[in-house]
């Protein structure tokens, strides 16, 4: 029978993304013993590993390509770029690795313990862990910071390798000749911009009457102009039905 490893802590933080690690660091700074749990092997959450940071890295690459195109307007001409997707992925992963190391160092300085595993509440004072070296953590206080997950299209089920959510899209395994982006929020526009800059013919559909729903229209207007220049098509007030 496998020995049951139990840990006790003042505060357990479930989720090691920006919400989780910020809470863990603050609690540790206040003098509490903190254990942070995440299903990934390293802290950082969706934002660092499959969201904001890789998106911004790829957007920087897209910006470089865009500036090379814009340079034609003032007489500087570059030959067509040769894009090595493998090197681009390695560069992106290196950025993620550096951020991960930085987070680990910040946690170690505060003596925050990090445990990889999937947590579930056993009681109001303990959690159980799967796929972890620790089987149970007893705590005085718990913070839930489990983050987000992609939303699928309601009433539509598609089983296809050609369907990607944001996590898969950030892997840039290939640059398709054409790409449909469902959703004109910041994630859709970021990924659409990256793929369009890399050579895809990108079409964006958005259910509401503007890109970046909820953002001040005066701020969206100049961005929309740039997006429409880059994309093959932008369709507002458009619903995907099948």
Summarize the structure in words.
With 242 residues, this protein is an alpha/beta fold. Helix content is 38%, strand content 21%. The protein contains seven helices and nine strands; from the N terminus they run βαβαααββββαβαβαβ. The strands form two sheets. The protein has a six-stranded mixed sheet, with helices on one face. It has a three-stranded parallel sheet with strand order 7-8-9, with helices on one face. α7 (217-230) links the parallel β8 and β9 (233-235). The model has no long low-confidence stretch (mean pLDDT 94).
Q: Can you tag this structure with a few keywords?
A:
alpha/beta; 9 strands; 7 helices; three-stranded parallel beta sheet; 21% strand; 242 residues; elongated; single chain
Catalogue the unreliable spans.
none
Placed side by side, the strands forming the largest sheet appear as: 3-2-1-6-5-4
Percentage beta strand: 15-25%
Average of pLDDT: 94
Topology order in helix (H) and strand (E) letters:
EHEHHHEEEEHEHEHE
N-end to C-end Cα span: 51 Å
Radius of gyration: 22 Å
Major sheet size, sense and barrel closure: 6 strands, mixed
| Global morphology | elongated
Query: What structural class should be given to the helix and strand makeup?
Result: alpha/beta
List the helices and strands and how they pair.
Layout: E1 6-14, H1 18-29, E2 34-38, H2 45-50, H3 52-70, H4 85-109, E3 113-116, E4 118-123, E5 126-130, E6 136-144, H5 166-169, E7 178-182, H6 186-198, E8 201-205, H7 217-230, E9 233-235
Parallel strand pairs: 1-2, 1-6, 2-3, 7-8, 8-9
Antiparallel strand pairs: 4-5, 5-6
Helix pairs in contact: 3-4, 3-6
